[in-house]
Task: structure prediction
Amino acid sequence: MGVKIVDTALRDGSQSLIATRLTTDEILKVAPLLDQAGYYALEVWGGATFDTCLRFLNEDPWERLRAIRKACPHVKLQMLFRGQNILGYHHYPDDIVEKFVELSAKNGIDIIRVFDALNDVRNLKSAVDACKKYHVHCQIALSYTTSPVHTVDYYVELAKKVETMGADSLCIKDMAGVLLPATAYELITRLKKDTNLPIELHSHCTGGICQMTYLKAIEAGVDIIDTALSPLSGGTSQPCTESFNYALQGTEYDPHLDADKLNQAASILDKIKQKYLKSGILKVKALGVNPNILKYQVPGGMLSNLMNQLDKQGAMDKFDDVLKEVPKVRKDLGYPPLVTPLSQMVGTQAVMNVITGERYKMSPKEIKDYLLGKYGAAPAPIDPEVRKKIIGDEQPITCRPADLLKPEFEELKKKYKDIAQSDEDVLSIALFDQVAINFLKKKYGYSIEL
Ligand code: CO
Result:
């Protein structure tokens, strides 16, 4: 059977190494080759791709998806979906989640990888139900992190729970690249024994251990691994597809990818990569190994964010202090996994704690909302003193956060009928407000004031 491969170059590779700047034209140069290379799926959409299309590339993300679908009639197309946050940074009502799943499927997505930053399964439910309704393969991803509560037992129990929720497959999503080889072996072995789900592993090379982790996972029976075509692999991205294709050749795990097709696609993508190296978007630092992430558990993307924030405030000398503060903030806040949007929130809080010289003197609004339960349940109890300092005596909600949100699709459709020409446009506005409105105005040549 061999190990199945999902290539992430066009989504996570682009996001991890070149700030998601890969354009649709560039993607279409390699897509037909990747379509025929023998992959299980291509990860092409979701994460930051939608945001970047609208905000920086002046591209319609829905048109991108349709174009990729047209260029790839054979291979499955996969997207990343942040549960109730969809592709945005806060919770959206259930009708928006459902509509987004429906139209993603309609425009060409076969597999939706749904995750919640806190692994609060209540935040996955409406996305899972919508996948079932619209016959999309629903993969539930568990946000992997390490902490006193995030043990192998914790993930096995969580996996059993998502299996009963109706997941079609399971992904261990190690966004920071901190899953150790021996832990991966133990975890995958247990998951194969205790669930009937196909298991996929997603990790990053940032800490320099990812290839070892993948190999141990393969030996433990992992079904699918995420790798990226060579030009957008390594560093803060996934391991290289071609290398795994060679490494496993002739073994029972042989993925049987078409090496010629991969080679052709890689040489095209390599030329594109040179452009981003020259322009400085691809930083040499992002291509190296950073074992510090294993110590501080800070994902690669978050590291560069922190550097930017400190640089802007002329406080780069505080970088090490902030790096040390991050795990402390995480502990205070009940060990949230550091993935979007929690990674940005915890990072900003750590910066504030260091810069102001007094811990929790200031807090971003999102951290207040987190303490008020608006992102879901924290994995472990929150430090009571920290809670008191940030939200005083305010009482957190204990229900599923989206239970408090009213449906809004029809209302938005009516409100923006002059600018949204399709339900897809309405969803772009629902997720990205003014950014989407500005884009649509340009797209349709409207000069009306809204
Ligand atoms: Co990733």
About this structure: The two ends are 56 Å apart (CA to CA).
